[in-house]
Amino acid sequence: VDGANGNDGNDGQTMPTALKTLQKAANILNAGQMVLVKGGNYLGSSLKTTVGLTRSGLPNAQLIFKNYNGEKVSFDGSVGDSVVNQGDEMFDFGGGVSNIIIDGFELYNFSQTIYLRGDNENITLMNINIPLNRNYGVIGRGNNIRIENFFINNSADRGIAAGGTNFHIYS
User: Fold this and answer.
1) Which end of the chain has fewer beta carbons closer than 10 Å to its terminal beta carbon, N or C?
2) Residues 159, 167: Cα–Cα separation, whole Å
3) Quick check: 75 and 100 in contact, CB under 8 A?
4) How far apart are CA 29 and CA 63, in angstroms?
């Protein structure tokens, strides 16, 4: 994904044919595939800030969303595509999804930055920085959720509000 030079009409298989939006990548991703996101500050005007995750990976073939080559990737929810959708969630796990890894992003100015709706399983959230959020850094429930090397600061309500079984938090 390349918010500056990508195009959602591309196939997304190489950097010259990168997609523009993370949502388009999430919609076409299959088990075992990885989405690499080019560095930059992604605003609602250049990349829809809410990414609905409705597809699952497999236990040995996860869906992976990661920053490209260690580049700094920031998503800013303060600028939405409309008054109604001003960055309520950055990652919205649709419920019943599994085997997903989110790795290496800075997420700020969202209401519920990462929302685990319903019974999600085997989700890993790692190397994520949430310096500012309007309500929750992570909210929701699931089974076997791993949160690792995760920084949350300036939460208006709670950093993590989670339920379910086997929530593992590592610094």
Assistant:
1) C
2) 14
3) no
4) 7
Give the C-alpha distances (Å, rounded to integers) separating 100 from 6, 45, 50, 76, 86: 23, 26, 16, 22, 25
State pTM to two decimals: 0.90
Q: What are phi and psi of 16, to 5 degrees?
A: -65, -20
Q: Residue 168, class by beta-carbon neighbours within 10 Å (0-12 exposed, 13-18 middle, 19+ buried)?
A: exposed
d(CA 156, CA 18) in angstroms, rounded, equals 35
pLDDT in the model for residue 88: 76
State the alpha helices, DSSP H only, in 16-144.
Answer: 22-28
pLDDT at 82: 41
pLDDT of amino acid 126: 96
Q: Are 86 and 57 in contact (CB under 8 A)?
A: no
What's the average pLDDT block by block, 10 residues per block, for the chain (171 residues)? 94 94 93 96 63 94 97 84 56 91 93 88 95 87 91 85 78 64
Residue 32 carries which DSSP code?
T
